[in-house]
Amino acid sequence: MISKNMDEAKEDIRRGIKDAKAHAEALFGGKGLTDPIPTVEDKWKLLPAFLKVKGLVKQHIDSFNYFINVDLEKIIKANERVKSDVDPHFYLKYTGIRVGAPERPDQEAMNRSYTPHECRLRDLTYSANIYVDIEYVRGRQIVRRKGVPIGRMPIMLRSSHCVLTGRNEMELAKMTECPLDPGGYFVVKGVEKVILVQEQMSKNRIIVDVDRKGFVQAGVTSSTMERKSKTYVGTKHGKIYLKHNSIAEDIPIVVALKAMGMQSDKEITQLVCGQDSKYIDKFSPNLEECSKMKIFTQQQALDFIGSKVKAPKRSFAPGIRRPASEEALDILATVVLAHVEVHDNNFRPKCIYVAVMTRRVVMAMLRGDLVDDRDYVGNKRLELAGQLLSLLFEDLFKKFNSDLKMNIDKVLKKPNRTQEFDVYTQLLFHGDHITSGFVRAISSGNWSLKRFKMERAGITQVLSRLSFISALGMMTRISSQFEKTRKVSGPRALQPSQWGMLCPSDTPEGEACGLVKNLALMTHITVDDEEEPLVKLAFILGVEDVSLLTGPEVYLPDTFMVFLNGNILGITRHSKQFVAAFRRMRRAGRISEFVSIFISDHHNSVHISCDGGRICRPLIIVENGKPRVRSEHIEHLSAGKLSFDDFLQLGLIEYLDVNEESDSNIALYEREIIPESTHVEIEPFTILGAVAGLIPYPHHNQSPRNTYQCAMGKQAIGAIAYNQLNRIDTLLYLMVYPQQPMVKTKTIEMIGYDKLPAGQNATVAVMSNSGYDIEDALVLNKASLDRGYGRCQVLRKYATLLRQYPNGSYDRLADPPVHPDNPDVVQEKFEVLDKDGIASVGERIKPGQVYINKQMPTNTSSDIGANSRDPTANAYKNAPMSYKSAMEGYVDKVLMTTTDNDQTLIKALIRQTRRPELGDKFSSRHGQKGVCGIIIQQEDMPFSDLGVCPDVIMNPHGFPSRMTVGKMIELLAGKAGVLKGELQYGTAFGGSKVEDMSRILIENGFSYSGKDYVTSGVTGEPLSAYIYFGPVYYQKLKHMVMDKMHSRSRGPRAVLTRQPTEGRSRDGGLRLGEMERDCLIGYGASMLLLERLMISSDIFEIHVCEMCGLLGYAGWCQHCKSSKGMAKMQIPYACKLLFQELQSMNVIPRLQLQNVF
Amino acid sequence: MVAEKKNFKHNDVETLRSRVIVERDRVTSTASTDFPHNYPGVDLAWDFEKFKENFKIKINRLSKTEMEFDMIGVDAAIANAFRRILIAEVPTMAISNVFVMNNTSVVVDEVLAHRLGLIPILADPTKFDFKAKEETPTDLNTIVFRLTAQCKHNPKASSTETDPLKKYIHSSVYSGDLVWDPKGDQAERFKDCPIKPVYDDIVITKLRPGQEVEVEVHCEKGLGQDHAKWSPVATAAYRLMPEILINGEITGEDAVKFQSCFPEGVVDVVVENGVKKAVVVNARKDTVSREVLRHAEFENKVKLTRVRDHFIFTIESVGSIEPQDLLVQAVQVLMDKCAQVKRALQATLQSD
Predict the structure, then answer these.
(1) Are the beta carbons of B109 and A842 separated by less than 8 Å?
(2) What pLDDT was estimated at residue A141?
(3) pLDDT for A730-782, tens place per residue?
(4) CA A708 → CA A676, A756, A929, distances in Å?
(5) CB-based contact, A763 to chain B, within 8 Å
(6) pLDDT value at position A1023?
């Protein structure tokens, strides 16, 4: 009975549900109210797909590829002709340019292609020839030639021209190259150099700003191929002026507009203010001023400006000086706001541009909040290797051409030539100006461009190969142009607009804090794109040309001005539709995916951008409240049927730059999508960069801790690259047994940190032990160290060149000197040397032993007879290289090769294997660093019920003030992972949950809290507290006691002052500094003071003449010519030196002596 | 707190003396207190007869490498002394000098030597002397092994083979490749149990064609306190016997939950008169995860303690000496030490 009723009831319910469902289907499109919203699982898989096509350093490579494949041709086209002043018929025209494959520079080589690794080893530059196609006049005919080399271009690794591109792992292994190496750097003279990303204010955009005096000004940095200049429209005493460097005085804005041909005051007013009376009121004083100055016509205005123009530097033919007004017109057309081009003296666009700038100033004067934020990331542009190299190349190419022209003129000037003049021979033997220019710039980091008068230092840096992460971190680094010394917080502060673009954690501490930034994981930096098609498209989509309109029409309430890369294109009255249509075209792939368009409601304008250097990132498009990416897409992606680019092409995802991002509604998670949402994030953890991505559970840590870890992760010793054992770097730190972390993150997997790790999973007990663990010191288990924990190798390169000297003599190697009586006995100093005078590989080398027994000729300058190879003609002196270190080492590798200028190069790599010792520095991944305070025997270590004893004991006082909860969760997750036999994830804003981890612990018979019952190893009795016990990933940092330990009793002294030398490397003294001196003075310890500052330093005995007070010598005063009244006394040598230096400057210090006692 | 006291008599002398009390967030009564005059009226003077009566050793598990036994009736200090001696002071033989003739493998000389050092050697250390640093090696203090390996392409392997073990000959060098080179009368002395590494399958290094390793290694006798390679045990540790006391009865669904708070086999649920009831059947299996103390329903109903003088001792030998011999040797070491102290004491007494 009961069951039957039950069944019926169930049936009823089922029917009811069905009805409700049908009802809901009609209402909510098939979704019940309580149905879980189906979310797209694993959409993070888009991230590896992105990294596969884009890579972590794709921005560098893209930029370089663009430069080499596109920009070079543009530069050539802009400088295509070389003419001669002598022969008007002569010309040389560049018709094409091409960069070849990387090749050895020497022509006779059998196999001319080479690998980057060979360049690293042999101190070469990894570069390729630049070939140009030319067309020139020879005699009476036109000659065309293809493929004329004009210089060599350093090639970025993994760029389109690099030999490594598109190779698989096997092929890379053959070239001794690491498949995980991201590339994006150059090898110049054997050194890996990175061109850092430079952050700048965006060009050709109006930025309204308040200057130091509180005056509003709108500034534009105009940048064209020819020139860069800055134009301001600013206020002074309530009136508006135009400011420019080429004009000595500020020009009233109305005068400027009149000079550009806008003579009617009404027209000016309308174009600046529209119909708004408030604006007109604010603007009218300017009109008044202009009329007071009695400037009414264009000519009057031009005359006025012409009188203020700075004298042009370039000297035209002397005598012919143009009238000032023409000069003014020329400057207004080409220099002021250079990016707004003036064709056929049509100043209308420039007038409108100036009017718009003025309007922005007026607006900002009325409403203070309309001032732009200079630190807004959308107002920033990033300059990459390609752009910097293109600037450099154009400069070098111009210099090349002007040199060539000079040479041509020189030859053509000669009245009669034996040979017909062929410019090709000139071109071939024109020297290596371009090659050396590139090499010099990249290896020194000094970018000096004559045409922009730009002199920038520190553009390039040596790629740090301390660890894999440090190299990677360097590739994503952005350096700012701001001065480091200025104390302003704005540029250093975290900007809300950097969300997803720049890593919020990864920035250095100290002076560069916030100025040096790092790219987030999923960023792309755009390269320049064609404007033409966008202009056409905009007009097709209904933009009206602004030159045809008057002021009131332009500033109607619904009218939006359309800008393309900062230039005014026109207006539209249907901004929303226009933008939507434009975006549709982009999603359909009709225009480049990196074109951005957004509406600025403050200024009633639509901005379209296709310029280079904008930071952008991909997002999933949301339509009608549903993301376009569905589970099936992701399945196809996992199956390899779709790639990231397909997603773009299908219009499922799109790139947004910062400006467009601010104009969108982006949901963080799918569940947070609201009707207004336009996009959804691919994965929130991509807001972090590659370096911060190593931290497990960073969202549980106090934010500065993550920043500290970002700095320390770069100092961790580990594996560097798959080719680490083939490298001969100046200094190489390697860990003997690196492990991948128990608790990893998705980022770790994607960047390959699990394959090139830098650390070990240490079993950590969080407890106080022995008192040697205060102040963050760690207690290490001796048995763990015996078994290889924290063991690392330090390899150092020692290199020398066997030089050839101008007089024909050369350095040589000598075999180890033997005992004169017994040829088998070799001095200990030369024991490790082989017969060739270089240490044998594998030999144990003690401090002081010689590893390269070099000899140099005594006479390297004067001529010894060029052909005399007689060894007796030139004697040799020993110049052996001996090993200087505190610890013995092993000769790891010896390389003997030649550099590109045929000098013999010898590199010896000496290796030390070190086990951790007292004072070595360790750190977990949570900014918790500490030094080893004591090493304890295993039997003294506490042990758990299972007999496990810790590798590391960490003091719990490290936790409360640091608030690194992430570390605690890492331990818990690590412990659970160990027990379950799987790796756990600590991915930011996700990762394995604490609850799940606790459950695993309980299932395996452990306390849910991660705290274990532990027995003391010393007493054998249980500890009265439960100990937090489990694995934590610990990094060994490069700071080791052995490299820093220093003491001195007696030692070397400086030659000039006879004071002890400075610094550990010179076995220097320990300085008693000013503050210490002050202490001793304050205490009155005069004898100690005397002892420290004179007796133990540079005590010197002098003889003073009591008569004249001058210094004598050995009881004789040379001044008085007597030995009467000579006194001996002791003073610091530096003091005596001072007296003598003063004497040399005609100041006589006299000592007046008195008896004290 | 009051209720707890009443129910479990927390402070009664017997509990405090013989039990370590495992509480939710701390362990109390950790230190041993059974020495004379500690508790008024309780005579805790050490008595040999009483000790003989109480002291027990029971072996629970024994294999070539592992032994678990119960040691009942001693102070923690004694049990701990055995543990410490096992880890640090029972001598074994281990490789301590490596002479590298040739090594072109990716593993550099020092690391190779380090790896070789950690290989356990099957040799009876009692038959060798300690070798002082300045002493010359003799057949009484040194064992010599040779290791030569050269990697070549395997001519029989197919060209598409990717497994290095098949593609190359000698692609991995194992501890089994160490060849004992008997010196003096060693071959005679050890003919019953030839000296060799305990395990033959420890990877020392990997090679690729053209690479080779040729080394001679010398083993010496040493102590774990000098280097972990001489430690005869992977670890030796003990835990105290757990004890689960139930106050009253835990019945019904609570009983099942109670059971699930312990590892399998610790608590049984029996049905008595149609009511489920939790019964502790084997407290030894408990890992003392204290899970039961987390739940409010068991508050005051359960008390966890550990028996202070009941040590469940585990010896994990690395294989060179069998665990039961290890214990005997450890006892011997302790006895020798005691004898030494005794001698020294007697000497001082006599000199007075």
Answers:
(1) yes
(2) 84
(3) 999 999 999 999 999 999 988 889 999 999 999 999 999 888 999 999 999 99
(4) 39, 21, 9
(5) no
(6) 94
CATH topology of domain A528-612: Hypothetical Protein Ta0175; Chain: A, domain 2 (3.90.1070)
The distance of A791 to chain B (nearest Cα, Å) reads 9
pLDDT at B299: 87
Q: Which residues of B touch A1019 (CB under 8 A)?
A: 31, 76-77, 80
Structure tokens at A1071: 């300085």
Residue A559: pLDDT band (50, 70, 90) is confident
Mutation target among A1003, A1012, A1024, A1028 for the B interface, most CBs of B within 10 A: A1024
CATH number for the region A207-313+322-380 comes to 3.90.1110.10
- Residues from chain B contacting residue A170 (CB–CB below 8 Å): none
The pTM of the whole model exceeds 0.90? no
Using the Cβ of B110 and the Cβ atoms of chain A, whether some distance falls under 8 Å is answered with yes
State residue A792's pLDDT score: 94
Residues of A with catalytic roles: 776
Q: For A33, which DSSP code? A: S
| Distance of alpha carbon B143 from alpha carbon A584, whole angstroms | 81
Give chain A's mean pLDDT.
Answer: 86
Select the residue of A788, A1019, A1023 nearest B114 (Cβ to Cβ). A788
Query: Model confidence over A358-404: pLDDT tens digits?
Result: 888 888 888 878 888 888 888 888 988 888 898 899 888 888 888 88
Using alpha carbons, list the distances in angstroms from residue B297 to A440, A1009, B258, B294, B318.
78, 19, 9, 9, 45
Domains of chain B: 2-87+236-247+300-314 (3.30.1360.10), 92-229 (2.170.120.12)
Of 1.10.10.10, 3.90.1100.10, 3.30.450.20, 3.40.50.620, the CATH number of A57-199+382-475 is 3.90.1100.10
CB contact under 8 A, B225 and A1017: no
Q: Which residue shows structure tokens 């990294």?
A: A51
How confident is residue B326, by pLDDT bands cut at 50, 70 and 90?
A: very high
Q: Tokens representing A141?
A: 């005919």
Question: Does the structure show a pLDDT above 70 at A6?
Answer: no
Q: What is the mean pLDDT of residues A964-991?
A: 94
| Superfamily of the domain at A793-862+885-912 | RNA polymerase II, Rpb2 subunit, wall domain (2.40.50.150)
* Domain A698-717+737-789+917-1036 coded CATH 1.20.272.10: no
Contact A947 B316 (CB under 8 A): yes
Q: Is the dihedral of CA A504, A467, A389, A438 positive or negative?
A: positive
Residue window 1014-1033, chain A: list those with CB within 8 Å of chain B. Answer: 1015, 1017, 1019-1026
Say if A152 is an interface residue toward chain B (CB within 8 Å). Answer: no
Test B235 with A842 for CB contact under 8 angstroms: no
Q: Where in chain B does DSSP place strands (E)?
A: 19-22, 27-28, 56-62, 66-72, 92-103, 121-122, 143-150, 152-153, 168-169, 172-174, 179-180, 196-197, 203-206, 212-222, 233-246, 267-272, 275-280, 302-317
Chain length of chain A: 1157
> Domain A1064-1144 adopts which CATH fold?
DCoH-like (3.90.1800)
Which residue from B81, B109, B314 is facing A947, i.e. has the nearest CB? Answer: B314
Give the confidence band of A212 by pLDDT, cuts at 50, 70, 90: confident
Return the number of other C-beta atoms located less than 10 Å from residue A98's C-beta. Answer: 17
- Give the model confidence (pLDDT) of A624-683 as tens digits: 888 888 888 888 888 888 888 888 888 888 999 999 998 899 999 888 888 888 999 888
Contact call for B22 and A1013, based on CB within 8 A: yes
Q: In what order do the strands lie in the sheet with A876-878?
A: A812-813, A854-857, A876-878
**What residue ranges do the domains of chain A occupy?**
1-35, 57-199+382-475, 207-313+322-380, 528-612, 698-717+737-789+917-1036, 793-862+885-912, 1064-1144
pLDDT tens-digit profile of A1013-1040? Answer: 999 999 999 999 999 999 999 999 999 9
Contact A1024 B27 (CB under 8 A): yes
A723 contacts chain B (CB < 8 A): no
Half-sphere exposure of A445 (CA within 13 A, CB side): 15
Best mutation target among B87, B240, B294 (most A Cβ atoms within 10 Å) is B87
